[in-house]
Design brief:
The protein is of the alpha+beta class. It has helices spanning 75-84, 91-104, 127-142, 151-164, 171-178, 220-239, 244-253, 270-276, 286-292, 310-334, 339-363, 368-378, 403-420; strands at 3-14, 24-40, 45-52, 58-63, 68-69, 72-73, 111-117, 183-188, 193-194, 198-199, 204-210, 284-285, 307-308, 383-388, 396-402. Among the domains are: 3-12 and 30-172, Ribosomal Protein S5, domain 2 (2-Layer Sandwich); 220-314, no CATH class. The strands form four sheets. Strands 1, 2, 3, 4, 7, 8, 9 and 10 form an eight-stranded mixed beta sheet that branches. Strands 11-15-14 form a three-stranded antiparallel beta sheet. Strand 14 and strand 15 (396-402) form a beta hairpin. Helix 2 crosses helix 3 and helix 6 packs across helix 10 (310-334).
Length: 427
């Protein structure tokens, strides 16, 4: 039986890299989707054709049993196998079978899988999560699995974290699975509290402009920033009485409720953080941290010789969570306001986006091209806010416009295509 499923990419409007610290985030699906066609086999062969970012398919043909260690699904073994053969791209797809075998006990005996994606690679709009969610949906249907609304994206995240080895948060998979057109999906990432959809007010538009600079969540700088934030959390938690045993327990079990602020930076208010920030070093080497502390992050490795910007990277999620909360409150107020009040609210919403963008840059996740787009947006009539999205370091810039300003945004997009002589994607 041939099974066909799909999932969209997503536009990160607010929250971005604060997701792994437990922030509220606001996400929306984009029109571009990934489609997966799957047919189970009984000979353990895995034949994968993936049309992502190229008219020529990426191909994989292997015996699924070669990915197993002693006939058992083992994430590290599969990662090493695919990496050594320079086929880690296939981990986003076949990794879904490995995760379902390990976590849900399916008897997987191979499949023919064809993937077609309109979600472009390296643009910060969750191309990988859309592949994982679409593939996971197909396999869940094939094996008649009943998964809860947050269970499927949680399993998809395991594919990326442990089979592929990319340290993404859960935000992307949740947004690709649960997002609805013309709505924001609010998620409190602790880890997966999904709140009621928020309709985007009529006359407001959130659009994305591709910077033309590729982003990768597996990139070194993203992981460094994430590690630094968790280092900052451990320093704060230890200062407030958490023991090394407490932190190790959280790392090993995933249980955090026994820790200060329930294990999430974003449960620290701005006022509380400002009273604690002086205990955080501006810079700290991985070696010096590990001599005294333990990180509770299971998906990043602290490098001994790296100097981490602990204070800045710890500060970002605390302030970003506050910005997202303000953003949501302003959106809720907007629909009740008169036109004159709405203009002030749009300006306030835009200022929160600009502040988020600047905070990305302080963490080291900005880029010259995205800074250029944000600067042009600030000068453009009808564009109220702009910020880099997702993991930063290139990718897509999200713009807030009204109906008239959307035409301005399209003109800005076209001028950038002409300036850089490349077909930049419009989301």
């Amino acid at each position: 039986m041939l099974i066909e499923t799909s999932a969209p990419g997503r536009l990160d409007v607010m929250g971005g890299i604060a997701d792994y610290s437990g922030s509220l985030v606001l996400q929306m699906p984009i029109a571009q989707r990934t489609t997966v066609k799957l047919q189970l086999r009984t000979d353990y062969r895995c034949e994968i054709k993936s049309y992502i970012g190229s008219s020529q398919p990426w191909l994989l043909d292997l015996d699924y049993r070669d990915l197993l260690l002693n006939k058992q699904a083992d994430y590290a073994f599969a990662n090493t196998y695919l990496t050594q053969r320079k086929q880690i791209w296939a981990g986003y797809i076949i990794g879904c079978a490995l995760v379902l075998q390990k976590e849900k006990g399916i008897e997987f005996t191979g499949a023919s899988i064809e993937v077609h994606s309109e979600v472009p690679l390296g643009k910060g709009v969750s191309s990988s999560a859309s592949v994982e969610v679409a593939t996971m949906r197909a396999l869940a249907q094939a094996f008649q699995l009943t998964l809860t609304s947050t269970e499927l994206p949680t399993l998809a995240q395991k594919v990326e974290n442990f089979v592929v080895g990319a340290p993404c948060g859960l935000m992307d998979q949740l947004a690709c699975h649960l997002g609805e057109p013309n709505h924001f999906l609010p998620i409190v990432c602790q880890p997966d509290l999904v709140e009621s959809l928020i309709p985007i007010p009529q006359g407001l538009h959130f659009v994305g402009i591709d910077s033309g600079v590729k982003h990768a969540v597996s990139g070194h700088q993203y992981g460094t920033v994430r590690s630094a934030a968790f280092m900052g959390y451990s320093i704060i938690a230890s200062h407030l009485g958490a023991s090394t045993h407490d932190l190790k327990h959280a790392l090993q079990t995933g249980e955090r409720n026994h820790l200060p602020f329930r294990g999430y930076l974003c449960n620290i208010s701005v006022d509380e953080f400002e009273s604690l920030q002086n205990i955080l070093p501006d810079k700290l080497s991985g070696k010096d941290f590990l001599e005294k502390q333990v990180s509770i992050d299971p998906v990043t490795k602290i490098n001994l010789d790296t100097a981490y910007a602990v204070r800045t990277c710890t500060e970002h999620p605390v302030y970003e969570n506050n910005r997202v909360s303000q953003f949501r409150s302003l959106l809720n107020a907007y629909v009740q306001q008169q036109t004159s009040e709405q203009t002030k609210t749009l300006t306030a919403l835009g200022n929160l986006m600009y502040a988020a963008h600047e905070s990305y840059s302080r963490c080291g996740l900005g880029s010259d091209r995205t800074d250029e787009i944000v600067a042009l947006a600030k000068k453009s009539e009808g564009i109220y806010g702009a910020k880099i999205t997702g993991g930063g370091q290139g990718g897509t810039v999200c713009l807030l416009t009204d109906t008239a300003g959307k035409q301005t945004a399209k003109a800005l997009h076209q001028s950038l295509c002409e300036k850089y002589n490349q077909p930049l994607v419009w989301f």
